[in-house]
Task: structure prediction
Amino acid sequence: MTDTHRSATRLLFLFSFLTASTYVVTRAMAISTFLARVGAPLLPACILGAALTVIVLSMASAYLGRHLRPVGLVAGTWLLMAAMSALLAIASWRWSESIWALGSLYVLAEIRGCFNTIFFVTLANEAFADSDSKRPFAVAASGAPIAGVVTGVLLGLEASVAQLAPTLLLMSVLDLATVAAVIARRKYISVRRPRPVGKKQDRSPPASTDVTPQRRYRIHLSALVALKIAVLTLIGYQWKVAVGDFYGTDESRLILYFALFYAISDVFIVTLQWIVSGALLDRFGIGIALVGFPLVLMCLGIVSLFTSSVMALMILFTIGKGLHVLRRAFHDPALTAAYTVLQPNIRRETIVIVKGIIKPFAEAATGLALLLLAARMNHIGITMLWLIAIPAWLLYSVRTTHYYHGHFATTRRTKSTD
Result:
């Protein structure tokens, strides 16, 4: 790893830590207050509203991304995050039971989650596109689970006294710290690599310069992400409903549950990211992560078909949601690395389209389906929906893996002849 890569890794680790801290706290508070004060039946409407909002904002981000550098776009986005958090702090203080205020907080949490992913993947690809190792992706991404551990423990300890308005104001301060960090160290994630000269300029691997394979690869990535998000949205909904049914309207216990859940799972995530993830991806490639995660979820779904009690469902879907340990430690770094084979001029646009438009569109479609069907279906019917989608998810995972490794095989052959 070069000195530039080390500096970029440290900066992206800090970026991941700060942005994940605000996301974890906002998400835990949003889910807990919504379930306790409004109830689970309106969750599908929130999922749909959040997804539609993210689509609009992502389209605006994609447009601005054509005219602004990633660092400038990051700074502007997190300044807006700080402003939105401050406004919602005032709204939640004045209208503590308002469905609109609580629903807006839920939407803000989803916006944070989406843009955290978009900009981390964008900046990581800017910084590590020329790195042969996947370890920098995993180490930089480990800032998020460490943030989850720290904020989860703190929020869990203060669950009985945590108040929404002061917490949101603190999130605004962390947003401003994110802006300051990115601007101060922007040179490490805005590297302008020299273009090749001479004959080598025309000797790029066929897999990376042929437009048709690149387009197919983007389709495979898009389908993979859309199917994954549809499955995870359905599982997430079942998890929240099961937890809400178990704890009822006890807001303090809900905050404690969500805070400790994220803290404990993030301990496993960061341990795997630091010790196992990078070495495993370097040794076996991205396929083991892209294919393995949906296979594990399929096994969970089959088991859930034979479960019915409130406590058993809460435990089972807590385990199911806990499988995001595998997603965050292995699947997400592998998916982030998958974008590196795209040509630089279309990589940024692809990341924004996939993460910022296709992902929330899949969430919106799933939220709409839940809005129309959830009241008529039990957990078995909903589970069957995402079990049916997993084989297609596996298919596009295999196709993405095949193209990715085919690209690097071609690159190695080209380098060996130079």
